[in-house]
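4.2 Preliminary Data

To establish feasibility before requesting continued support, the project team ran the inverse folding procedure on a target of 410 residues. The structure was first converted into the token representation described in Section 3, and no sequence information of any kind was made available to the design step. The complete token record follows.
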């Protein structure tokens, strides 16, 4: 695996830390900026919305840029947003920096996914994707708890400074290790990379209309919907692990950071294993992963009163969720070979739609008085919908991925 792919994972680690760390900083931000806690909570929502909107927009905006230049511009904007956020005494300015940071993050994600698969052989595309996605899981394990500790002892601004500082080595490494686009393959499709690269160099690549046509094919849209449902299920349960553990399972508050870190460890193992398996058996991995996730959320909802069962299932579900999710991202690239620059942005948008919708749906059930197990049941229901959508996709488009690729090539 090229060193540059790991560099992209490092940058995604810093950005993933920023996306999730506010859950431990809300009270400090509210007190310092003299706003309510719900207002401080809107900073997280603003970031999520910026990610959903920004992924396709930033990919369109930068599609003609060389990838190394695009990565540097987006990461520089991300660092600048966090420096301004760390310095500002204004809530309104901080809110604006969260939106700008999310737009830069979304653009970086979209380009990084394309760049990663362009730097490896076709047989290693899923593994490269898992390295980039793995940056988010490492953020869950290390970055988010570290940000919470910094916020507790040095103030919330220290966490923003830390994200900016961690991003600087990635900036330098991108300059020195990410190859110039002219010396790499295009990564347009896992099975026809070299042909697509040559076509891209000679004809300028597909137009925006052609890329959008590829991404709005029925099978691609259904796959993106399935992906959003899977991520919605993941973040619905993950967002409410703290009240589930403390008020249903009976664990002490001191267990919560360890439980969240355990979920992150499982996620990291999941994306690592997925990257080694998905290139050969992607469809089997995705279907088996979704079915296992559905059963796992049901098992957690039923056995949440047991500390042993809860701890074990949190680890297993983290592993299954991110292992399946990273395989689905690489599946989008395979299904949409005609969208070499926009496929990553649509996958990023689907990921973040699920990340935004899942916690909202779980919160609705809690507000309705259904208890702290209810978000886990919502996760199980979302997985049932994901499995149904996947079945509809297969019935509506029964041609295998390999045969479909052959047809497109001919």
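Position-by-position output of the design step:
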């Amino acid at each position: 695996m090229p060193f540059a792919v790991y560099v992209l994972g490092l940058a995604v680690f810093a950005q993933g830390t920023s996306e999730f760390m506010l859950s431990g900083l809300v009270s400090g931000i509210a007190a310092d900026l003299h706003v309510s806690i719900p207002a401080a909570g809107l900073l997280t929502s603003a970031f999520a919305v910026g990610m959903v909107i920004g992924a396709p927009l930033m990919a369109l905006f930068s599609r003609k840029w060389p990838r190394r230049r695009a990565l540097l511009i987006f990461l520089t904007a991300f660092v600048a947003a966090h420096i301004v956020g760390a310095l500002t005494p204004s809530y309104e300015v901080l809110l604006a920096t969260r939106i700008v940071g999310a737009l830069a993050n979304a653009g970086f994600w979209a380009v990084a996914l394309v760049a990663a698969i362009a730097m490896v052989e076709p047989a290693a595309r899923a593994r490269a994707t898992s390295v980039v996605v793995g940056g988010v899981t490492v953020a869950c394990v290390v970055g988010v708890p570290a940000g919470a500790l910094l916020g507790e002892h040095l103030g919330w601004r220290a966490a923003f400074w830390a994200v900016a500082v961690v991003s600087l080595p990635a900036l330098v490494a991108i300059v020195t290790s990410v190859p110039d686009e002219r010396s790499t393959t295009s990564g347009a499709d896992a099975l026809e990379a070299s042909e697509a690269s040559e076509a891209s160099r000679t004809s300028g690549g597909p137009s925006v209309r052609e890329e959008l046509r590829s991404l709005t094919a029925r099978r691609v849209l259904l796959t993106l919907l399935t992906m959003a449902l899977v991520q919605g299920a993941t973040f619905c349960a993950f967002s409410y692990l703290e009240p589930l553990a403390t008020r249903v399972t009976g664990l002490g508050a001191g267990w919560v950071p360890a439980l969240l870190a355990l979920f992150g460890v499982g996620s990291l193992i999941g994306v690592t294993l997925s990257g080694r398996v998905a290139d050969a058996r992607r469809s089997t991995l995705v279907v088996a992963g979704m079915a296992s996730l559905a059963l796992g959320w049901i098992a957690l909802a039923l056995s949440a009163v047991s500390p042993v069962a809860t701890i074990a299932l949190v680890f297993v579900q983290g592993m299954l969720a991110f292992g399946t999710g990273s395989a689905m991202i690489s599946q989008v690239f395979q299904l949409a070979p005609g969208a070499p620059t926009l496929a990553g942005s649509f996958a990023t948008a689907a990921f973040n739609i699920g990340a935004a919708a899942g916690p909202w749906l779980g919160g609705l059930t809690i507000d309705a008085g259904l208890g702290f197990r209810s978000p886990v049941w919502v996760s199980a229901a979302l997985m049932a919908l994901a499995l149904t959508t996947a079945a509809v996709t297969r019935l509506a488009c029964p041609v295998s991925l390999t045969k479909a690729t052959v047809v497109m090539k001919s």
